[in-house]
Amino acid sequence: GKRKKSSRGPAKKLKQTLATTFSCLFCNHENSVICSMDKKLGVGNLYCKICGQTFQASINALSAPIDVYSDWVDACEAVAAEGEKGFVVDDRRGQVDDEEALPASDEEDDDQEEEF
């Protein structure tokens, strides 16, 4: 009779690796943000190779690079929401309070028109 073939072992499962490079929120370049994690110090750092933007967040033993990136996204959204709520952004002067951004009263303009 014929020799029986030995069966192959089970196929190895491919382990998916999580990304460590991300898109920058400020310059919108793909794969320009590098994440480095120091688990002994409990600190995760993000750095954009293009625009130089940096971010630092606290991490724990179970944290992954995507966790640091999501903390950065949340922090940027919080700053944007704060900017919409209480401040008016003026390109010439930076951020000013709503009360200071209001124009001067129209009484001065009325006085000037009466002189003519």
Automatic annotation (TrEMBL):
Return the Acidic residues bias intervals. 97-116
InterPro entries (alphabetical): Elf1, T_Elf1_sf
Q: Which GO terms describe its biological process?
A: transcription elongation by RNA polymerase II
Record key words, sorted: Metal-binding, Nucleus, Transcription, Transcription regulation, Zinc, Zinc-finger
Cellular compartments annotated: Nucleus
The GO terms this record gives for MF are:
RNA polymerase II complex binding; zinc ion binding
Residues that span the membrane, as ranges: none
Q: Which GO terms describe its cellular component?
A: transcription elongation factor complex
Reading the lineage from the top rank, the first entry is: Eukaryota
User: Where is region (Disordered) located?
Assistant: 90-116
Principal place of residence: nucleus
Q: Please give the SUPFAM superfamilies that the UniProt record associates with this protein.
A: Zinc beta-ribbon
Cite the PANTHER family for this sequence.
TRANSCRIPTION ELONGATION FACTOR 1 HOMOLOG (PTHR20934:SF0)
Name the job this protein performs. Answer: Transcription elongation factor implicated in the maintenance of proper chromatin structure in actively transcribed regions.
What family is this?
Belongs to the ELOF1 family.
Q: What is the protein name given in its UniProt record?
A: Transcription elongation factor 1 homolog
